[in-house]
Amino acid sequence: MSATDGLWRELSDYARASRPSYLVGFASSIHRMACSIKHHQLEAPGSQRMLSAAEPLSDSQRHASEPYLGSAGFTTYGSREFMSLCAAYAERDGLRILAENLLVEDA
Fold first, then answer.
1. pLDDT digits 0-9 by tens, 61-87
2. How far from the centroid of its chain's Cα atoms is residue 8's Cα?
3. Which of 30, 73, 78, 105 has its CA 20 to 30 A from that of 60?
4. CA distances from 43 to 32, 34, 83 (A)
5. Is the pLDDT reported for residue 1 higher than 60?
6. C-alpha to C-alpha distance for 96 and 87, rounded to whole angstroms
7. Residue 44 in contact with residue 37, Cβ under 8 Å?
8. 17-26, 50-59, 81-90: lowest mean pLDDT where?
9. 5-90 domain in CATH 3.40.50.980?
10. Average pLDDT of the segment spanning 8-29
11. Which DSSP category does 99 fall into?
12. What is the structure's pLDDT at 2?
C-alpha cells in the first residue's frame, strides 16, 4: 500500500471518528500522519496515547507529533517471539519491563 497524502487524511479522519484509546504504529508512520494533520490543518484524533512499535520514536519526532495527534508518545520494544518486552513510561527516563507476560531467567 502506498503511503499517499490521501491515505494519511483517510487514516486521520478514521481516527477522529472512532476515537481509539491508542494509536500504534511505526514511528515514521506516526510522524507522517502528524505532518499530514498539520499540513491540512485538521483536528487532532485525541487518542490517550500514541505507541511506536518496531522502531523507536525519537525525541524530535515525538515533540513534532504530539501537538497534532493530541496525545503523548511512547516507544515500545519487543520481538517476534515474545511480542511486547518493555515500554517507555510517563517520566521518560527509562524503560519498564512488561513482566506480566514474561518469565525472565538469568543464566
1. 999 999 999 888 888 888 777 777 778
2. 15
3. 78
4. 15, 11, 32
5. no
6. 5
7. yes
8. 81-90
9. yes
10. 88
11. G
12. 58
In sequence order, what are the residues at sequence separation of 6 or more whose Cβ sits closer than 8 angstroms to the Cβ of residue 59?
Answer: none
The set of residues, in sequence order, having a beta carbon less than 8 Å from that of 29 and lying 6+ positions away, is: 3
Place of cell 497534532: 68
Angle formed at CA 12 by CA 78 and CA 92, multiple of 5 degrees:
40
Amino acid identity of residue 86, one-letter, is C
In 5-106, which residue ranges form alpha helices assigned H by DSSP? 5-18, 27-39, 59-69
Which whole number is the average pLDDT over 84-104? 75
Q: Report which residue type is found at 85.
A: L
Query: Is beta strand 22-25 parallel, antiparallel or unpaired with respect to 72-79?
Result: unpaired
pTM comes to: 0.76
Cα three-residue angle 65-70-73, rounded to 5 degrees = 50
Separation between Cα atoms, residue 90 and residue 45, nearest integer Å: 20
Distance CA 81, CA 47 (A): 28
Note the residue count of the chain.
107
Residues in Cβ contact with 107 at an 8 Å cutoff, skipping those fewer than 6 apart: none
